[in-house]
Amino acid sequence: MKPLILYSSQNIASLNIARQIEGNIDMVDVRDSIIGFQPPETNRDYYIVLSSHSSKSGIPSATVHVPGNWGKAELGGLDSRLCISYPSKMLEIISRYEPLKYRGFEITYEVDHHGPFFGKPVMFVELGSDERYWNDSEAAKVIARAVLDSIDSSNEYDVYFGIDGTHYVPKLTRYSLENRVAYSHLLARYQDGFRDEMFKQALELSIERVDGILVAKKAVDKYQKDYIRGFAERYGVEVKFI
Predict the structure, then answer these.
(1) Per residue in 53-94, pLDDT tens?
(2) In degrees, to the nearest 5, what angle opens at C-alpha 96 toward C-alphas 92 and 97?
(3) In Å, how far from its chain's centre is CA 54?
(4) In the chain, what are the domains?
(5) pTM for the full predicted model
(6) How far apart are alpha carbons 5 and 122 in whole angstroms?
(7) Cβ 109 vs Cβ 64: under 8 Å
(8) Which of 8, 9, 27, 11 is nearest to 148 (CA)?
């Protein structure tokens, strides 16, 4: 399984990480908005997109997630369409962000939340959360090394569709890193994803088999718990509340 790495010279963090990778693997500069470009066709097996992460908090962060939209496509991509994920590869990457914890960085997954739409497995690898950290060459070096090391890994993990309370899925991030569990897709309680059609995508759009649904039980309300249990019964899917 070989990736094509994409970056944008118009995105500070994306370019910064790409400079740390340059010469080690083929990359393509999309020369456009990092969430609005048209993915290039490739004979490679999956995409890794290098990107900035933005947050009003300005907290330094290193993230990974699958692009896609649970509802209306407000930041690129297609309405109510998720992309194909590569769960074990994302876990391999985020677990290698560890050195950044000692510099005060937040290490986290994000929920699916923006475009573009890809026809092959894809993940976004992001450095944030504002210009101070987009220009942080040492942080970019850690992320670049995480990407390169993950490419050479053949490790595979149990995979679940994860549901948590917020954009940064704090409980599921901790659970993943502590228990070596990977995620196909991630949904937050506020997103418009509690529909059969979207749950089916979350379970089916993965390069790896998805074992079931993993839910941070205190992060969802009664209606959502009942819907999750009902979906699991209708379709014979395992569900775990943690």
Answers:
(1) 988 888 999 999 999 999 999 999 999 999 999 999 999 999
(2) 125
(3) 15
(4) 3-241 (3.40.630.50)
(5) 0.97
(6) 10
(7) yes
(8) 27
